[in-house]
Amino acid sequence: MTIVVGHLATPEGQEALRTAVTEARERAVPLVVVTSGKRPLDECRSETEELVGRLGAGVDLRVEEGTGDLAEDLIRAAASVGAGLIVIGLRRRSPVGKLILGAGAQRILVEAPCPVLAVKVGSEA
User: Fold this and answer.
1) Beta bridge partner(s), residue 7
2) Whole-number Å distance between alpha carbons of 71 and 55
3) Which residues form a coiled coil (predicted)?
4) Cα distance between residue 125 and residue 110, in whole Å
5) Which long-range contacts (CB under 8 A, 24 or more apart) does 39-42 make?
6) pLDDT, tens digit, 9 for 90 and up, residues 48-105
7) What is the largest CA-CA distance in the chain?
């Protein structure tokens, strides 16, 4: 089994990456990190390797460059590696916004070839 996650410089993206590293370490499985395609691959790889070094010593890591359509890239990567899990980050929404899931997240949930773990930053009491 492999875990797939996107690399985004948002709080939600960073939480998804932290969670994916933790899951990969605890399950002793490889981690594929897909970049957003909006920043240089080397910059994303360096940030990801630094985080993995702090959180998940021993995690088998691969960083892939995305095309800019993160939902499509995550689905494709998960299918190509036979992933057992995709991790995505969700942002907090207003009460009305909670009726509508983001288009990218919805697409991943519907089209993913494996289970999807959705994480959010912080929580409300």
Assistant:
1) 35
2) 25
3) none
4) 29
5) 39/9, 41/65
6) 777 777 766 678 888 888 888 989 999 999 999 999 999 999 876 555 444 445 678 8
7) 42
- Model-level pTM? 0.84
pLDDT tens-digit readout, 102-120: 678 889 999 999 999 999 8
Domain with residues 3-120, CATH architecture:
3-Layer(aba) Sandwich (3.40)
Say which residue the tokens 């909670």 belong to.
98
Q: Give the pLDDT confidence of 9-61 residue by residue, as tens digits.
A: 888 888 998 899 999 989 999 999 998 777 777 877 787 777 777 766 678 88
Tokens representing residue 102 in the block: 């983001």
Q: Tell me, what amino acid is at 24?
A: A
Distance from C-alpha of 98 to C-alpha of 109, rounded to nearest angstrom: 16
d(CA 92, CA 43): 27
| Residue whose token pair is 């036979």 | 82
